[in-house]
Amino acid sequence: MRFVASWALVFGAWLSCTLFSTPAFAGMVATPKSPSEEEGRAALAAAVKERLAELGLADRVPERALAAASVAQLSMLLDSTGIAPRAGQAEIAIAVVVVVLVVLLLIILLSSSGSGEEPPPPPPPPRDPVPAIRNTSIKVVTNVYFSYSPKDEGGARQTTMRLVLDRLNENGRADGNTFREAQGEATNFIFNITIHNDGTDHFSASLSMSGWGWGDICTVGSGQYKFSSEGAPEMIWKCVDEAYGWIHNGWHENR
After folding, report:
1. What is the model's pTM?
2. Selecting from 3.40.50.10070, 1.20.58.480, 3.50.50.60, 2.40.50.90, what CATH number does the domain 137-249 have?
3. Using one digit for the tens of pLDDT, what is the confidence trace for 208-220?
4. Hey, where are the domains in the chain?
């Protein structure tokens, strides 16, 4: 009984030391260890492995558990396995050591679970800058959307597509660039233009441009216009002019 009591005291002391020295239970982040501390921890781990081998328990503890154990945990484990049982009590001692090892493994797994998240992947490498585009026949797709229900949606869509294409060709003339709608073929640029109405005859437009192997390139807006036969084209042209500036000047990633 004395032996069992002594083992219980050792086990209780070890468990208390382990629980309160583990970052997961203390709510703290473990501080980096100096090289000398790491050397001491490695020596303790080697001594524990040797002691476990003597007891025939080497296969009971994964290498991961010993590698993650703190100095305090290794010291307590070494002390617990070093108690020599009296005659006839070897099986009891080994059973207690096995319990100690299981608790140690559980605590180590719990303490490392909070830091088991993989770091985020590195950002993709920057894409090559695109120089100014000149003397190029450019194929485009123009998609027109409305945030409201126009009276003649089909007619408004066709008119907007024509305004976009005509303005692109007007802007591209000085650069030797020509634009046409793609007909089931590879596309250089996609223009998605959305026309908004706030319900009081105030209109605005936004245009997003993508393509040229880059995906999304830019999104521009027209600002607000009062509906009129003159204002509607100007609203579209303003968006197209800003988008063409990227084609005229080229672009690059900002990193």
Report:
1. 0.54
2. 3.40.50.10070
3. 999 999 999 999 9
4. 2-113, 137-249
